[in-house]
Specification:
Layout: H1 2-13, H2 19-30, E1 49-50, E2 56-59, H3 68-71, H4 79-90, E3 111-114, H5 128-144, E4 150-154, H6 156-168, E5 185-188, E6 191-196, H7 201-204, H8 211-232
Parallel strand pairs: 2-3, 2-4, 4-6
Antiparallel strand pairs: 1-3, 5-6
Helix pairs in contact: 1-5, 4-8, 5-6
């Protein structure tokens, strides 16, 4: 399983299927802001990251231009990542509360982080065709994460993507489709979906998403994962 995931992530990192995103991610790397001048940007699609035996999978949106697009690891090197990994550490899902670079020693336990779109998009808004071209990577990734049972969807984009991916994989989706909300829950096939506001500065700086709210989501995710594991066992 780990070898198959590693092979998939190498395939992800070499993708050049979306010309607009290829141009954007490389242009950002060629002219970074002053605070990142001299750094060697990843400037490629960003693979998933975490524990191959994870029961909990976090699904975001896309890499940030000067976060994951710079460091090569999901939610690493930006304010959203600072918030997310601190919460994962408090929940016992990460060995340290910070994520600054791909070689910083961070490891996840029982968690995996991925996204529906693997390249940094302009204005953080991937086009519909770009999202659709990238979707097979997430379908295959979830299939390889054999123990995954809880999908923590970071924002409405991740929630919608998770439902679409699960439907494409042949799982039964409730009708009408469950609506996203912070703390929302839904069942699709063997998976439990759990909604969480995205840890963007727009949410964390305004108080729309607080640390206790984030902690409650991950506590619930661990509770669901344990329950699903006991049922399958």
């Amino acid at each position: 399983m780990a070898d198959a995931l590693a092979a998939l992530e190498r395939e992800v990192a070499s993708c050049r299927a979306c010309p607009r995103l290829v141009e954007w991610r490389e242009a950002v790397a060629a002219d970074p802001p002053k605070r990142f001048r001299g750094e060697d940007y990843w400037a490629r699609p960003v693979p998933g990251f975490g524990d191959p035996r994870a029961r909990i999978v976090l699904i975001g949106l896309a890499p940030a231009a000067h976060g994951a697009n710079r460091t090569g690891r999901m939610f690493t090197g930006d304010r959203s990542g600072d918030w997310l990994y601190a919460a994962l550490h408090r929940a016992g899902l990460a060995n340290q509360p910070t994520s600054v670079g791909a070689d910083d020693g961070l490891a996840l336990d029982d968690a995996w982080i991925t996204a529906p779109v693997r390249c940094a998009p302009p204005q953080n808004k991937p086009a519909t065709d770009e999202r659709d071209r990238c979707r097979p990577f997430l379908v295959r990734e979830l299939a390889l994460l054999e123990r995954a049972r809880v999908l923590v969807c970071l924002g409405g984009y991740g929630w919608a993507a998770a439902l679409t991916v699960l439907a494409e994989a042949g799982h039964e989706i409730p009708r009408p489709r469950p609506k996203f909300g912070h703390g929302a829950e839904a069942t699709a096939g063997p998976y439990r979906l759990l909604g969480c506001f995205h840890p963007s500065q727009q949410n964390t700086f305004t108080g729309r998403l607080t640390e206790p709210m984030t902690d409650e989501v991950f506590a619930r995710a661990r509770e669901l994962a344990a329950a699903e594991g006991s049922q399958s066992g």
